[in-house]
Design a protein that fits this description.
alpha+beta, NADH Oxidase, 4-stranded antiparallel beta sheet, two-stranded antiparallel sheet, 9 helices, Nitroreductase-like, oxidoreductase activity
Length: 204
């Protein structure tokens, strides 16, 4: 194992902070945004269905609308962009697309398997949408950090107002809102519970 790379990865992971004060007027270019989203989309997902969708908000007028929806949390108006990560409740509908390059028998098998799972478990669609979109959200924040940008995950917003204002179809469920930009004030370090509070070995 390359020890230098291992320690740089550890330092990278521990250096991420949730930033709530951003430099105003910063522009996030299409190229930079796409690089971050491409990296985020390398996150794992069940059946490789890639249950996430990204609603990107960069226009100031729309960020001001988000400000009201987010109960006045100023970071959504000041950040260069706000990414609203959505979970796809009908991800099974893209199975054929995901496996279009596979052999026909493999593609047919996967479509049957996925559709069967979704049909036989009413709660599966929502669970998978939120679970897999959350994986992409975390990867998005790490990708932004790797590109020199700061983020903060937000769950404090009016979901119904968000859906109404931005005309989000019923197919998608809002999972998390992530402002991206450059810190005006660095996020503070936070403590973590000792591992003995977090880890259960083998069984309870």
């Amino acid at each position: 194992m390359n020890t230098e790379n291992r320690f740089s990865a550890e330092q990278f992971l521990t250096s991420r902070r949730s930033v709530r004060q951003y430099q105003k007027g910063l522009v996030l270019s299409d190229a930079e945004l796409n690089e971050i989203l491409e990296l985020a989309s390398r996150a794992p997902s069940s059946w490789n269905l890639q249950h996430w969708r990204y609603l990107v908000v960069r226009e100031q007028a729309n960020k001001e609308k988000l400000l009201k929806i987010a109960f006045g949390q100023q970071q959504v108006a000041d950040a260069a962009a706000v990414i609203i990560v959505l979970g796809d409740l009908e991800a099974n509908k893209v199975t054929s697309k995901v496996y279009e390059k596979a052999a026909p028998e493999i593609r047919d098998l996967m479509v049957k398997q996925v559709d069967g799972a979704y049909a036989n478990n009413p709660g599966l669609a929502r669970d998978e949408a939120i679970r897999n979109a959350s994986l992409a959200a975390m990867q998005l924040m790490l990708a932004a950090k790797a590109k020199g940008y700061d983020t903060v995950p937000m769950g404090g917003y009016n979901k119904d107002a968000l859906i109404s204002e931005f005309q989000i179809p019923d197919r998608y469920v809002p999972v998390v809102m992530i402002p991206i930009g450059k810190a005006e004030k660095e996020g503070r370090a936070t403590d973590r519970l000792p591992l003995e509070y977090q880890v259960i070995h083998e069984r309870f």
